[in-house]
Design a protein that fits this description.
By secondary structure, this protein is of the alpha+beta class. It folds into 2 domains: 81 residues, 434 Repressor (Amino-terminal Domain) (Orthogonal Bundle), CATH 1.10.260; 58 residues, no CATH class. 45% of the residues lie in helices and 14% in strands. The protein contains 7 helices and 3 strands; from the N terminus they run αααααααβββ. It has a 3-stranded antiparallel beta sheet with strand order 1-2-3, with helices on one face. A hairpin with a 5-residue loop joins strand 1 and strand 2. The termini are far apart.
């Protein structure tokens, strides 16, 4: 199996990719799926953007009905936050690397590139405080202080 197929198989295991793929198979636009499932188009956009990782039962059932799949297929792809936590030591290490100007950092969850920056803020006494920030270009991982 080549790298492209492997990436496709891994990417297809996300809730966002699954919903998008099923929607495409059914010939729906995001708005069309929202209408068919009787949910807000914003919800469909949030799911496909990877911002919604847990779905209420009613939304899961509505999507399953519109996409002609079982609700359990969708539920299986929802994130269990407890098993998806990155250790505090790794977060601290990444923060220090960001503050030190390191480039080319990778997401500790999926290995994709991290977009990083240092936010410059001031406390009540007008002292400069640097806050490292990062978000993954592929998954919902982010660092914000």
């Amino acid at each position: 199996m080549n790298g492209t197929n492997l990436c496709y198989d891994i990417c297809m295991k996300t809730l966002a990719r699954f919903i998008q793929s099923k929607r495409d198979e059914m010939g729906f636009t995001q708005k069309g799926l929202a209408v068919a499932a009787n949910i807000s188009v914003n919800i469909v956009e949030e799911i496909e953007a990877g911002k919604e990782l847990f779905l209420p039962v009613t939304i899961r059932q509505a999507l399953a009905k519109a996409l002609k799949c079982e609700p359990d297929e969708i539920k299986a792809l929802e994130k269990d936050i407890a098993s998806d936590i990155v250790s505090p030591e790794i977060i601290e290490s990444l923060k220090q690397l960001i503050l030190n100007g390191a480039g080319g950092l990778k997401c500790p969850k999926c290995g994709a590139p991290l977009d990083t920056r240092v936010a410059r803020m001031y406390d009540l006494e007008d002292n400069l405080i640097l806050h490292p920030k990062a978000h993954c270009t592929k998954c919902p991982f982010q660092i914000h202080s």
